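Narrative progress, year one. The postdoctoral researcher (J.K.) led the effort to move from monomer predictions toward full complexes, under supervision of the PI. The following entry was the first complex the group processed end to end, covering 766 residues in total.
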Amino acid sequence: MAAGIRANELAAFGICRPTLLLDERRARRNIERMARKAAAAGLRFRPHFKTHQSAAVGDWFRAAGVSAITVSSVDMGLYFAAHGWRDLTVAFSANVLESDKIDSLAGACTVHLVVDTPETVAALAQRLRQPVQAWVEIDVGGRRAGVPWDQPDAVLALVRALRGTASLRFEGLLTHAGHSYEAEGVAGVLEVHGTSITRMTRLQELVRGAGLGPCAVSIGDTPCCSLAQAFPGVDEIRPGNFVFYDLTQARLGACTEDDIAVAVACPVVGKSRERQQLVLYGGAVHLSKESLRDAAGRMTYGRLATWRGDSWGPAAAGAALVSLSQEHGLVAVDEALLAAVEPGDLVVVLPVHSCLCTDLYGEYRTLQGASLPRRQSNLVPRD
Amino acid sequence: MAAGIRANELAAFGICRPTLLLDERRARRNIERMARKAAAAGLRFRPHFKTHQSAAVGDWFRAAGVSAITVSSVDMGLYFAAHGWRDLTVAFSANVLESDKIDSLAGACTVHLVVDTPETVAALAQRLRQPVQAWVEIDVGGRRAGVPWDQPDAVLALVRALRGTASLRFEGLLTHAGHSYEAEGVAGVLEVHGTSITRMTRLQELVRGAGLGPCAVSIGDTPCCSLAQAFPGVDEIRPGNFVFYDLTQARLGACTEDDIAVAVACPVVGKSRERQQLVLYGGAVHLSKESLRDAAGRMTYGRLATWRGDSWGPAAAGAALVSLSQEHGLVAVDEALLAAVEPGDLVVVLPVHSCLCTDLYGEYRTLQGASLPRRQSNLVPRD
């Protein structure tokens, strides 16, 4: 085991600093698995592209039959529109300050927005010049955004407000059950899933019963979409993280560690017998400060993976990143691992949260050494 | 108070998405204050540029008389060397995999490296073709990197190893007392400072006493450098964060909230009376997930600032960011703030940790509307 964490073969690609790795085979397998599940359940598969943010990875979804996608910002939508995508949901409370950019996007594609307040509906109706589709977001328990599921009158009022506009065409009810991330294992996730669908389909019946026309239901989180086998009443799923997965999803049981398709190669720059630590060139700016608590209650910012010669395997036992500063990562290790690694070696870190980790980089390096460019959320072309 | 958090004047600069703001007046004031303190104490001022990572901000240091700087990676050193800096300390355990890049840097500038293991000294001695200066890093209690302060024999062995090489010229002992960040307020920081200096100067005497020649002492953290008035035995200080400060430094007492020179402008995209929350377009990819615990034990990821028309003021009461997802920020607010803000308004978030927050962006926007480019840690020019 101890000998299995040195990944020095990666130096052949010129890797000498923290570098974002992508295992294409695993990502394509994750995509195909979710696409098959959606097809089998008769669901529209509208994957969220906020996790990968790469035109190249987007092409792997195209190869799996995907033609409609989800993004989390108008800027991200413009990026994918420039790469040929023509049907996009911006699954984020519509930002009325970006009305001009929404118009640009809607001039090139079918755009679906998300609203949850009458003020936003009124502002969009006044400002938008291009017609768009509009979903009403429902808070089924995540307490982030959306009309609370137990306020049916507010839901109906918002649907009526949309139907009173010329530019916003009501499409249905959308939710992101983000509280699945706090669930206790598989059973907890499935309970969130069941409750969410019940709450969404009840509101759907209410809208239909009020004579407000067709009303689709769209749900979105990776834990529920990975673990559930049944989606009664659901029309569309929008998971995103599943393309790469991460330690958070593995902890929930939504994937195995062998499904994790991204990792960060880091040089070892120090080791200390006194502190029982390896020191990595690999810190908060390379991994993000997203954390998990381990069984002993310690914060963990990643784990060293075992290395198989051509890709990484599951996490190595007893090799958790227990502290991150800007560029340093500290790995608590036992004597055996300490003896097996030297400054100048490369190791591979499995990320706690692939969406945040990958957004720190401008490219992926595949395990064949290729570079796949990706956008970063804050590198926005200036007008 | 409630009316004082809308910063809609910023829309005049075209700001409609999360945008990193820089108050030039405050940053210059922070620089001048630290430069004056160093001069008064007879210290070499070698500021750390990892916080701002901007050639333009670097020029403000030049204007304050700075000619030698600190960086945290070889790539960052190459960036500043390309902008005319000729004397750089890479204050990070030397990464032997980057020997070629170190040679390139050392061909253009005076380069100072940091070592803490004999293996690294041996590898550098073998690989480097350009001469460099070398500091021995001491762990004075931060437990991140460095030879433990209570292992004088290991320190002497490392100094002797350096003196046995042709390319690495021993310069002195360097530390970063990062545990000052965990100290209890001003008294706690000053205790860390006093203990650190005592430990460093004792080792310095030991090195001199062993006939190993001149031995300088370099210290570095912003809390100690901001709060201490005396630096007996210290030759050089390397603080970095002080150029911008942040909520973490304000909490420690190392600055006031009025010294915080960077903040993030965020659009309000939702509000919920039921959840007593504002929803911001401004999440983990715009602020980082660095957190502080508030008095009630809740995690806080930033605080809304008051707004004075042309810049921000101190944090508004009762407006903490209590949850971040990838692009959403949730602000817990009272009724008065809830009533005072609407979707479409802009608000300003004070960051918990300015080093991590600013590294997410490719530019600063000044309060005069100018754009100052900055490098990001992971956007490295490819060979």
